[in-house]
Design brief:
Shape: rod-shaped
Order of helices and strands: HH
Strand content: under 5%
Radius of gyration: 17 Å
Helix content: over 70%
Number of strands: 0
Structural class: mainly alpha
């Protein structure tokens, strides 16, 4: 099974935006106690960083032209 460049691109941007949203949510909850806010912010940062890595990986992929029938 091979993953296409388009799927990597969609996954990367979903991870970046989802991670940034989670960082914002964690940042706003950090004063509530319990450590949930800090944990969410760190987890969101990790997800956003993984999305940035996927952007780099996508830039290194070769895109084959569609087959002419």
């Amino acid at each position: 099974m091979s993953i296409t460049a388009a799927r990597v691109q969609v996954l990367a941007w979903a991870m970046i935006y989802g991670g940034m949203l989670t960082v914002g949510l964690g940042w706003s909850l950090r004063k509530g106690g319990n450590g949930w806010g800090v944990g969410l912010a760190i987890g969101g940062g990790v997800v956003a960083a993984a999305g940035c890595f996927l952007i780099w990986a996508r830039s290194r992929m070769t895109v084959e032209p569609p087959a002419a029938d």
